[in-house]
Amino acid sequence: MISEKLRKHLEKLSKSKIGTHCSDVTKLKISKANKGKKPFLGKKHSEETLTKMRDKVFTKEHRRKIGLSRKKYIRENNPSWKGGRNKRSDGYIEIRIYPDTPFCEMLKKKKRKYIQEHRLIMAKHLGRCLYPYEIVHHKNGIKDDNRIDNLELLPNNNVHNKQIQKVYLENQRLEKEIINLRLKLIEYENSLIMQ
User: Fold this and answer.
1) What is the distance between the alpha carbons of residues 146 and 101, in angstroms, rounded to a whole number?
2) Is 68 exposed, middle or buried (0-12, 13-18, 19+ CB in 10 A)?
3) Residue 62 lies in a domain
């Protein structure tokens, strides 16, 4: 039989956050081992220890070595490097642009390093940078199909909206035509069955 005092102590331990996967006996052993010890919370390093750590770890030579080691893993040397080509959540592909290329002027913000691939392909095809108001339209509507024969340069957003409206209306017309053809097919099949 467990004494009343021990039972209350075990209940207190079971309510505390000491490993819930431990047995009651283990919890009792842990509490006895930690009895009288103060937890580490609130302790700080002394000023002497802090200065020693600062002098040893963060010397100029150490900082230089850290910088050199980080430079080893940039761009092509990084195992996560994907060639500077990313697919955005909205479906467009972005390409990394470097400051020495003539097309870096097309970046909207100078801090940005990526440009949409379809704009870059059209700019290379034309041999000039695109103006911010020029729109590159995907003819087939697939955002990552950046072949030059699928791209169309539109002078502004109004023309682009009209182009999209034309495609939408054509799509609706084709959908109606498909429905009519399906109905005719059903009628034809029914007439064959009746014969």
Assistant:
1) 20
2) exposed
3) yes
Domain with 57, as residue range(s), is 53-77
Q: What is the dihedral of CA 100, 103, 109, 111, to 10 degrees?
A: -20
Domain annotation covers residue 67: yes
pTM: 0.48
Number of domains in the chain: 1
Q: Give the pLDDT confidence of 95-153 residue by residue, as tens digits.
A: 888 888 888 888 866 667 888 999 999 999 999 988 888 889 888 888 889 999 999 88
Quick check: is 124 in a domain? no
- The answer as to whether 110 is a domain residue is no
71 band by pLDDT with thresholds 50, 70 and 90: low
